[in-house]
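Good morning,

Attaching, inline, the backbone tokens for the sequence recovery test we're adding to the shared suite. The designed sequence is right after.
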């Protein structure tokens, strides 16, 4: 992700007002040795700080849709990182350096939000816009004077450019197939037999309750009928002994 943001910023600095000027854009550390090697006007964008923007951290999972807008995967939300660049102009005359810094401001100020279409493929796939700030109030722990001191170079006017980019989180989880059928309820009677599927389940439940309530009387009637049949079989015929 970091190298892709490098290329995005490099393309922005070389375009806009400075398009066609032929001025090189370098990502190297602006040390004394580097400045001694340059041969012409150069814009330098040195990445001096990388920090997570914890205010943008999210929890949970995000759905991943296919071309039919069906959820096929779920993934964790991306983590956002602030990439801070020290942007300087290097020429022979201070006035020319100031003109280049003004051109950089004119190029970057209208681009406070980079849409996905202007991002590399891996960042574009997330479908998220990337914020960009230039020359805002510095909130990092290290001051620019300390950075120049660490580089061993001379203090120069610079622009603090911050690109807050998402870093894809892994892994992704497969999602279950979409639900295509409605919810159904199957009810059985108390004797284990299935009810009539055409009868609503509320009526089938009431029928089962009624059957259970009337079962003692049904059993008693069956016992009486069984006793009558038994009595008829053992009763003597007419004219026989009593």
């Amino acid at each position: 992700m970091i190298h892709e943001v490098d290329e995005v910023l490099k393309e922005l600095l070389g375009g806009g007002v400075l398009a066609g000027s032929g001025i090189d854009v370098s990502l190297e550390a602006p040390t004394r040795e580097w400045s001694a090697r340059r041969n012409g006007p150069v814009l330098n964008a040195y990445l001096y700080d990388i920090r997570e923007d914890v205010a943008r951290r999210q929890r949970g999972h995000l759905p991943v849709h296919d071309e039919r807008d069906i959820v096929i995967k779920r993934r964790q939300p991306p983590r956002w990182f602030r990439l801070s660049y020290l942007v300087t102009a290097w020429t022979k005359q201070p006035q020319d350096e100031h003109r280049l810094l003004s051109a950089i401001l004119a190029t970057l100020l209208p681009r406070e939000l980079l849409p996905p279409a202007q991002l590399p493929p891996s960042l574009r796939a997330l479908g998220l816009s990337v914020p960009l700030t230039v020359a805002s109030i510095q909130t990092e722990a290290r001051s620019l004077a300390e950075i120049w001191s660490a580089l061993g170079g001379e203090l120069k006017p610079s622009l603090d450019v911050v690109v807050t980019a998402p870093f894809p989180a892994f892994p992704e989880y497969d999602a279950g197939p979409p639900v295509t059928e409605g919810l159904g309820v199957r009810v059985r009677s108390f004797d284990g037999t299935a009810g009539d599927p055409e009868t609503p389940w509320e009526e089938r439940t009431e029928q089962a309750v009624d059957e259970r309530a009337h079962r003692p009387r049904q059993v008693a009637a069956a016992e009486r009928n069984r006793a009558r049949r038994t009595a008829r079989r053992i009763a003597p015929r007419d004219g026989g002994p009593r």
